[in-house]
Design brief:
Strand order of the largest sheet: 1-12-7-4-2-3
Number of helices: 5
Helix content: 10-25%
Structural class: alpha/beta
Number of strands: 12
Shape: globular
Radius of gyration: 21 Å
Strand content: 15-25%
Order of helices and strands: HHEHEEHEEEEEHEEEE
Length: 213
């Protein structure tokens, strides 16, 4: 018996007590599991997010909404960025102080995006307990490729409205019909020797700006 047949037989055995006419939506799923680990104030949730983002080797910055254009300009300058792609929904004021940077259309091909220094986006939300930023291709986040090809990603997260404590809370706010990208730190992988290599499946550098006000 092949491995495929073995797996299919086990699936059939597991489904022997399931009526043929039963559909997934006919089954009530128990949602009584723990939704979050402890009680936190919004400020504590934001601090936990920052801590876990940093643990995943993302670089975390904090500023007010009024300071955001200057902060983005300083991050681009520190990275030596001369070109930037920003989706159409990114407010123009975010890049108002980045006058020396050329803005590249988000419709660029993957080959063209590979020459872009930085991508600047918003986010759908961020999860504190896992240190994860989620993108859903909304206008301020753009096509998935714009955040996977350039080597440097600056992601703006509004605090506290875009920060949730846990994965269950995030799933309630996200649409399964959207193309979701879940980002926990810069792209990285390790070989069998556990040598870490960054920038394999996405940006080598992730900078998250937590914005208040």
């Amino acid at each position: 018996m092949s491995s495929r047949e073995t797996i299919l037989n086990r699936i059939r055995q597991a489904l022997t007590d399931v009526p043929l006419a039963e559909a997934p939506q006919d089954v009530t799923v128990d949602r009584s599991y723990l939704r979050r680990h402890g009680e936190r104030t919004p400020e504590q949730t934001a601090e936990l997010l920052a801590e876990n983002l940093a643990d995943y080797r993302a670089v975390v910055h904090r500023c007010t909404d009024a300071e955001l254009p200057a902060r983005i300009a300083s991050l681009l300058a520190a990275h030596g960025s001369r070109t930037v792609v920003a989706p159409a929904g990114v407010p123009a004021r975010w890049l108002a102080d980045s006058v020396a940077v050329e803005r590249v259309p988000e419709e660029s091909t993957a080959r063209q995006l590979d020459t872009v220094d930085t991508v600047v986006t918003g986010c759908a939300l961020a999860i504190a307990e896992t240190g994860t930023v989620v993108l859903d291709a909304s206008p301020d986040q753009g096509l998935r490729r714009v955040t996977l090809v350039p080597d440097h990603h600056i992601c703006v997260v509004r605090v506290p409205e875009q920060v949730v404590d846990s994965l269950p809370e995030a799933l309630e706010r996200l649409s399964p019909r959207r193309p979701l990208t879940w980002i926990s730190g810069p792209s990285a992988t390790s070989d069998i020797e556990l040598d870490r290599v960054e920038g394999v499946h996405g940006p080598r550098t992730l900078e998250v700006v937590l914005v208040r006000g």
